[in-house]
Amino acid sequence: MRVGPAFLQTFVSQVVQSAASIGTGILIARALGPTGQGQYAVVAAAVALAVVVASFGQFEGNVLSSAGSSESGRVLLVRSVIHSGAVAAILLLTEPAWRPELGVTGQTRVPVLFTVILAFEVEAALIRGINLGQHHVTAYNIAALLQRFAYLALVAALWIMARMRLDLVLSMWALAAMTSVGVSGTWIWARSQRGPVNWRSLASRWTNNVRKGLRALITISVTLVLVRCDVWMLGPLLGIQTVGQVSIASSLAEWLWYIPSILGNLLFAAAAAGTGEQTVRQIAKASRAVVTLVIPTTVTLMLLGRWIVPTIYGIAYQEAGTLFVILLPGMAAVAIHLVIDSYFSGKGFPAISIWAAIGALVAKVVLNLMFIGRYGMIGAVTGTTVVYVTLLVVKLIALCRETGQPARAFLVPTWGETVGNVVAARAWILDRLRLA
Where are the alpha helices (DSSP H) in 275-317? Predict the structure, then answer.
């Protein structure tokens, strides 16, 4: 895979997606208020974690299994349909056990909508794995773009009709996910090589695919709990309105991850085919580019954050502005970590990936228990930043030992390299504008 062109295409796509997602989030937060936003954040966090667990590492398994080939595309697609259907069936059968955990007492439609959303999000994740594994970056980007814009349009329609309620917002989420899955799944089927799709072909190497994804499942599940545990811990300790404030600060600060997450996914797909010197050079170059972009952005946002958040989301989220500023250094650390960690992801998620994530989660829970009672929301987000910076340091040390490269190879960009990246990006964008 040519990471540079793929990144530039995905970068433009991600910028557009980000604008759509920010717009959707603003509409939801303003209409539902801190309490409703807190409920929405709990449901969204539950979906995010459940998608990772229910996918059972098969996004990563599909990437590793495809390895640039479209030969098994149809088989993997049918497997993903069976997989997501099984998820929906299990959820429906076990609803009494998990319904109270959503924290939406009296809203009977929410558990059903949660089930539908989760099934389609699992399917969408597995389809993204097929696209990325086949190195079909255009399809990977269009699937995400379609879902984001469909969700924005549907939520905007609710806003115009003055019908913004939690259950209706979740219904629009489900519809947007279904649209993306339908279009992307049809595209995969059409472009993949023809071959028998029967029980034998479906079962063949399925166990191996699950095994490939198991380490990813453990690592990413723990990481997601690490990222979202504030939402679950703060509600019982400080109330649902606090969750609303922290969720806004976190979701806005997490935009620092978006460009690095693009690089991380593309480099993961490249590293899955081999982790030689060329891959290490790609990761080092990408990491330096992220440092060039993220550090100045972080400093600027720290200066303006207390004003930006209430301006965007409304005066009700004044406290979220302070939380946002405290979170920014930690989010910048995660942004760099996402690129560095693609080396270990491409190696199949070795022990360092799992134990670093577990250690960070334990540290975050302990710090929350120590700080929340004394310092409230401020204590929670301060602990988060400390943990994220520490996680980057640990993973950087491991990478330097593994590759024999010094830390500066991943963290210190040269002026010539920075100028070259800007020139290349400008040339690519102008070329696409001429073609348009």
Answer: 277-313
Q: Cα separations (Å) of 389 from 320, 334, 413?
A: 21, 7, 20
Q: Where are the domains of the chain?
A: 1-204, 217-436
pLDDT digits (tens, 9 = 90+) for 285-311: 888 888 888 888 899 999 988 898 888
Helix-strand-coil split of the chain, %, nearest 5: 90, 0, 10
pLDDT score, position 270: 56
Q: Write the DSSP symbol of residue 359.
A: H
Summarize the confidence of residues 218-239 as an average pLDDT: 76
Q: Mean pLDDT throughout 323-332?
A: 92
Taking the C-alpha atoms of residue 381 and residue 369, their distance in angstroms, rounded to an integer, is 12
Element (H, E) at 354: helix 351-403
Express each pLDDT in 355-376 by its tens digit. Answer: 888 999 999 989 988 888 888 8
**What phi, psi does 106 have (nearest 5°)?**
90, -10
Count of helices and strands (H, E) across the chain: 17, 0
